[in-house]
Amino acid sequence: MDGLEEKYLISEIIKKPREQENLAYYNILKRANKSMLESVTKVRVARKRL
């Protein structure tokens, strides 16, 4: 993870777990990161319009 410039993308490089408990955390992390990426995209698009 130290080499990852965009730390919030950690869910994109970790392997999908097989255990149900770990899978729940993985899915939560993926959803949270998706939401954050959508917010970043909205800001970037808004800035380009200026």
Description of the structure:
The protein is mainly α and 50 residues long. Helices cover 68% and strands 0% of the residues. It is built from two helices and no strands. The chain has helices spanning 10-13, 20-49. The longest helix is centred in the last third of the chain and has 30 residues, at 20-49. The mean pLDDT is 89.
Low-confidence stretches: none
> Count of helical segments?
2
Q: Which descriptor suits the 3D outline?
A: elongated
Content-based structural category: mainly alpha
Mean pLDDT: 89
**Helix-strand pattern, N to C?**
HH
Biggest pleated-sheet summary: none
Taken as a percent bin, the fraction of beta residues is: under 5%
Distance between the termini: 35 Å
Fraction of residues in helices?
55-70%
Strand elements, count: 0
Radius of gyration: 14 Å
What brief labels describe this structure?
mainly alpha, single chain, elongated, 50 residues
Write the layout of secondary structure elements.
Elements: H1 10-13, H2 20-49
In short:
The chain has 50 residues and is an all-alpha fold. The protein has helices at 10-13, 20-49.
